[in-house]
Design brief:
mainly alpha, 46% helix, two-stranded parallel ribbon
Amino acid sequence: MANRIPFARGLNPKLTPEQLDIQSVMSSQYFDVAGMVLSQQLPALLELIDPDKLLYASDTPYTPTPAVIGLANKLETTDLLSPSLKTKMFRQNAQRLFKL
């Protein structure tokens, strides 16, 4: 889908090349992986961004606690992420971003 972004210029000719360079735009963003990001969103995201930009957030209180626990457990046990990447996503990336 990211490769279709340049076609947006047809809808809005005022968009600059920099605004249409999705890889460049996304490289400066952080991404929250709360919610149901498995099995489609997280793999797609990992193809587009630096994993150092992944942050876990629970979405509590908007997501009920049992659901938060279940979704967090799925992230903790997925084979899509290495143990070191899980450590970054759950803790280290936020510590670096917020200078904790």
